[in-house]
Write a structure and sequence with these properties.
It contains twelve helices and 14 strands. With 340 residues, the protein is α/β, with parallel strands linked by helices. A seven-stranded parallel sheet has the order 3-2-1-4-5-7-11, with helices on both faces. Strands 8-10-12 form a three-stranded mixed sheet. Strands 6-14 form a two-stranded parallel sheet. This is SDR family oxidoreductase.
């Protein structure tokens, strides 16, 4: 079988490509600009092109057909419309990576299934994903375009540690604050529930959907089965570092407002996603992919990530602006407390 990945070198897609390259019976192709060519496994073919240059891509795909095309970098409706033009009649399956953040916030129930309403008034990113899903499913209903929708939640790899609140350079500065014994901002009272998935576990479920006839015209969420509070997540990071966590709980609404002057979108990222307790019901995926399981609980995944990050300086991206912002928020709240 022949699979094409648009992108293919990101947090989620690289794990899939690596596993699929070792899976008998698959011929794996990537379509990207070749920016991470050194990370691509042996035997994987690359079509070097910018997917946004539709005519150039069409020319390079002229002699190709695929069993599955996987879109990892489509964020707006015009991008999936382009894919529909490029791949209709050229693939037996088109898998679109949407997002679990597209589910209604706050949801009517904390248990999330694929049937949960899609609506997120807080985050444009999520609304764009919903629009992409709507377009693709419309094309499936009208002309049989063979789409499968996949909705990941918070998926991570060895290059990054999941945290609730971070700056523009990722989570390293939060790790530094834990290592230095500084207070770490956690939204709300730290008790809201969250699900984290290591990318190799996600890949197992995804590969089971590739070429799977039961997946055509369907949506699947792929997440781990472990649910933790944000306090537990940060405590697990501190335990792995052998440091004492100093949690500082801050209202999500306050964080959303305090972040705006500094370009931090905590309205979308927190109110529209991370601060809402969710538990994912993965029974639909496991019916379609009986081999689906999660082998990397967070206390193991975080150690894998820390081992990698601490030995790779390029992953240690300092963010003094975010560090100063955290100190400023904490100082302002402590001052307000003293004046009550």
């Amino acid at each position: 079988m022949k699979g094409l990945f648009i992108g293919g070198t990101g947090t989620i897609s690289m794990a899939i490509v690596r596993q699929l390259a070792e899976t008998p019976g698959w011929d794996v192709w990537l379509l990207n600009r070749g920016n991470r060519a050194a990370d691509v496994p042996a035997g994987v073919h690359t079509i070097t092109a910018d997917i946004n240059d539709e005519q150039a891509v069409a020319d390079k795909l002229r002699d190709h057909t695929f069993d599955t095309v996987c879109e990892f970098i489509g964020f707006t409706q015009d991008q999936v419309e382009r894919d529909w033009r490029l791949f209709r009649g050229k693939t037996r399956q088109y898998i679109y990576i949407s997002s679990a953040s597209a589910y209604l916030k706050p949801a009517a129930s904390y248990v999330i299934t694929e049937g949960t309403t899609l609506a997120n008034p807080y985050w444009e990113y999520s609304r764009n994903k919903i629009a992409c899903e709507d377009f693709l499913m419309k094309k499936h209903r009208e002309e049989g375009f063979p789409v499968t929708i996949v909705r990941p939640s918070h998926t991570y790899d060895e290059r990054s540690i999941p945290v609730a609140v971070h700056g523009k350079n990722g989570s390293w500065q939060v790790i530094r604050r834990i290592m230095e014994g500084k207070p770490v901002i956690i939204p709300g009272d730290g008790s809201s529930l969250w699900t984290l998935t290591f990318n190799t576990d996600f890949a197992r479920g995804f590969i089971g959907l590739m070429g799977n006839r039961h997946a055509i015209g369907e949506a699947f969420q792929i997440t781990g089965d472990e649910t933790l509070t944000w306090d537990q997540i940060h405590q697990t990071i501190a335990d792995a570092l052998d440091k004492t966590l100093v949690p500082y709980h801050v209202s999500t609404d306050f964080l959303a407002e305090a972040g705006k002057p500094y370009g931090y979108d905590f309205t979308g990222g927190l109110i529209g996603d991370k601060s809402v307790s969710v538990v994912f019901d993965n029974r639909k995926l496991k019916r379609a992919v009986p081999a689906m399981r999660t082998d990397v609980p967070f206390h193991i995944g975080v150690r894998k990530a820390l081992d990698y990050i601490l030995s790779h300086p390029e992953c240690q991206r300092e963010d003094p602006e975010f560090d100063a912002w955290c100190d400023r928020v904490i100082a302002a709240l402590e001052k307000a407390k003293s004046e009550i």
